[in-house]
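Tokens as discussed.
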């Protein structure tokens, strides 16, 4: 019979997709690697553009994980006829799969998606008799902050009276992006100032007076949020040339080549993406050719190209010789910049190498005895 595990978010920015994918990886490696295909059933209680888990599973893990895509509680009210209809669908999925799958993994509803998320998560988990893992974040690891977080979780658990609680996963510990909200370009600026240090958190030392087990304390890791040229290409969905060999170049800064283009000469950082209006391409090439340390620029986005012309072939050759990837689009510079500000290290645009690295990193922190996967 299937084991049913439901992941229930307690905070907004918790890396729910990363946790879900890592539990799938951990369970597959420890329990069912040599068993039948699609031994895991996954579904999310919400279906929207920000739900990346189903997309990643269908792209890379469809041989071992079956997904259900038509359940969305975020648009219904608790205890309404529509809610009851969806709940019955979930119960039917469980009944139809309980002898077919080793694991049924359910992603609960984030509290910013639905005003009734707490009531729905509780009701769904109890109707399925699911084992529950709560997911929370920790903005910092100071004793005072941890004590307050502990009190909030204990109070929540006393109110809801959950059964079959496996424990809590604390993710994104000490992330610089929890307390302060930045757009993507500002996040790159913040990352440049952070050293590659990961502070290990020992669960027993930070949480002592609680009614829950701690499954994992996962530190935020600067190396996990690197952005490559191929990630931005996948996100922007624009045309490119000279990308295949240069797709893994890291991007650490984004600048606009405009009337203040002399700033490009004074930059000390490497791995820059430059957004250039095609109307200013001649000026940009002159600056690049005469003054700039060419290793700084890893990628350019040419905006405002309505039609590719033969006479820009020489332009491409010039840039290719300098190992610079080239994107081009009809959109103007402001449109591309606005798109990039919303990038937010989207996991759905990452390749399988990155996904597996992330899964190994997170699952390495799981407490085996708490999750009881063996």
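Sequence:
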């Amino acid at each position: 019979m299937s084991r049913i595990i439901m992941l229930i978010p307690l905070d907004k920015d918790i890396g729910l997709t990363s946790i879900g994918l890592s539990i799938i990886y951990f369970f597959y490696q420890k329990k069912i690697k040599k068993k039948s295909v699609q031994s895991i059933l996954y579904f999310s209680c919400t279906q929207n553009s920000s739900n990346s888990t189903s997309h990643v599973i269908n792209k890379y893990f469809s041989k071992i994980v079956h997904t259900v895509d038509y359940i969305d509680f975020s648009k219904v009210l608790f205890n309404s006829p529509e809610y009851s209809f969806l709940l019955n669908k979930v119960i039917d999925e469980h009944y139809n799969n309980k002898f077919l799958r080793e694991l049924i993994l359910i992603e609960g509803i984030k509290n910013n998606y639905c005003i009734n998320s707490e009531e729905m998560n509780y009701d769904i988990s109890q109707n399925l008799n699911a084992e529950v893992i709560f997911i929370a974040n920790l903005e910092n690891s100071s004793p005072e902050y941890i004590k307050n977080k502990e009190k909030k979780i204990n109070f929540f658990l006393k109110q809801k009276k959950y059964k079959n609680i496996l424990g809590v996963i604390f993710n994104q510990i000490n992330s610089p992006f929890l307390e302060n909200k930045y757009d993507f370009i500002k996040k790159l600026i913040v990352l440049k100032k952070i050293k590659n240090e990961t502070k290990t958190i020992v669960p027993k030392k930070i949480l002592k007076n609680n009614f829950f087990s701690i499954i994992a304390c996962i530190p935020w890791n600067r190396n996990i949020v690197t952005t490559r040229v191929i990630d931005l290409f996948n996100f922007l969905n624009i045309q490119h040339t000279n990308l295949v060999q240069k797709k893994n170049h890291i991007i650490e800064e984004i600048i606009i080549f405009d009337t203040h283009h002399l700033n490009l000469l004074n930059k000390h950082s490497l791995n820059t993406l430059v957004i250039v209006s095609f109307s200013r391409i001649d000026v940009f090439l002159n600056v690049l050719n005469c003054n700039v340390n060419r290793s700084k620029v890893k990628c350019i986005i040419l905006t405002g190209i309505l039609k590719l012309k033969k006479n820009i072939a020489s332009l491409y050759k010039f840039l290719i010789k300098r190992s610079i990837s080239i994107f081009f689009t009809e959109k103007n510079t402001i449109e591309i910049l606005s798109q990039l500000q919303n990038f937010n290290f989207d996991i759905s645009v990452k390749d399988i190498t990155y996904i597996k690295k992330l899964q190994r990193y997170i699952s390495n922190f799981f407490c085996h005895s708490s999750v009881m996967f063996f």
